[in-house]
Structure formats: structure tokens, C-alpha cells
Specification:
two-stranded antiparallel sheet, globular, mainly alpha
Amino acid sequence: MNNLWDLYLQQFKTTFASMVQYRASLVIWMISHVLEPLVYLIVWSTVSLTGGGSVGDYTTRQFAGYFLVLMLVNHVTYTWIMYEFEYRVREGMFSVALLKPVHPIHSDIADNISSKLITLPMMIVVAVGLGFMFHPVIAPPVWALASAIPALVLAFMVRFLLEWTLAQSAFWTTRVGAINQIYFVLVLFLSGQIAPLTLFPKFVQIIAGVLPFRWMIGFPVELLLGRLSPEQAWAGIGAQLVWLLVGYALFRIVWRAGVRIYSAVGA
């Protein structure tokens, strides 16, 4: 445990130094995280205004609240391992990771968490600034705010495990761009990123409730907006725990199979 703590601490220092060194890249990365929900916010706000001030059970200001909270939740849960894993395998960099005394996933967890700790304050400042522009309605009860903390932690863990597992498809095929795109399209529509899930047809909502995507993003957003009852919140956290166990089991199975056939293409 002491070794893991040292690893996480050192990774935080490394990530911080990297972000200070590449400030322009950091700004570009943050802009990309702000632009997508901002575009959806503007689109749905316009649709709402032209439709009499609301669409479904969302008013114009509630749309603003939804997408501003979504921007922060997506930032907290987002991972980039699916973009990097293919490169590591293809260039032989994964061989070095396998020689280390700890599992490679720990380095990615440490890097991900440390980068969020550094950039989250800036994202909050951006969200507050946009709040003054769009006047969002965000009024969650105290119990929902308290429940959102474990919900966000579980959402990150579920998303990280599932995406790390899917990234391991690079063990079998060194070009995984098509697999990534299919996955991200599913996330876009079934997690609530493109629009609140309550605006979708009922069968889409059912599919979203069965698959893990809603529990990675949409559920924490709805909880932070105060749109769920305590019973729905407990059911959502239960669904997250189920998918966490499923994600961990898949991760272990795929890892064991993938390492056996791994070959360093670029080595």
C-alpha cells in the first residue's frame, strides 16, 4: 500500500509538471470539454424558446442547468485511455509497463485523478461564468448533493474500468479506432450527453437503464439537478455497484487473456 501511495503521489507531481509545461495543450483540451455541452446547451435552449419556453419536462433555464452540470460530471468521469492504449501496444511501450512491479492500471488511475484535481477548479470557474450568461436553474436538495458524492465516485470507477477493458481490444487488433467510435456514439446517445434521456422515446430510456452508460454520466447529472427521488437515487447507486462488479470481472478476464497473446508490434 505504501508503494501504491508513493506511485500516486509521484504521478501527481509528474502530471502537474507536464500540465505546467504544456499550458497551451491544456487550454485546448479544456476548450474541447466545454464546447460540446455548450453547443448542445445553445441548441436545446433555442429549441425550447421557439417551442414556447420548454421541451418535454425541461424549461430553457433547466436546459442550461442540465448541460452546465453535465459539463462538470463528464469532466469528472472522463478517461482518455482508449485513445492511448492502441499506441502503447503498437509502439511496444506496453512492454515496459509490464515489467513494473505494479499493475499498469494504477499508473493510469493516478494520472487520471491527478489531472482532474488540477483542472477541475478551472472547469468550475468556466461553469460559473457560463451560469451568469445562461441563468441556469439548479436547486438540488441537501440529500441529493450528499448522494451525488458516492454517485460521482462510482460513475468514474465504472467508466474507467469499462473503457480500460474495451481499450484492451488492442491486444487482438492494433487498430481500434472503429471500436472506439462505436463506443463513443453509444455513450453520446445513451448517457444523456446529447440530450436529457427523458426526451427520448420510452424504449431508448429502457435500453439506457439496462446498459451502463446512463449510470456513468446521466444519473449523477439528474441527481445533482434534484430531479430524482430518494428511492430512484438508491436504485441508481445500486445499478452503479452492479456495473462496477461487472466491469471489474470483465477487466480481469480480458486482461488475463490479452496479456497471454500480447506482442510488442513496435519493439
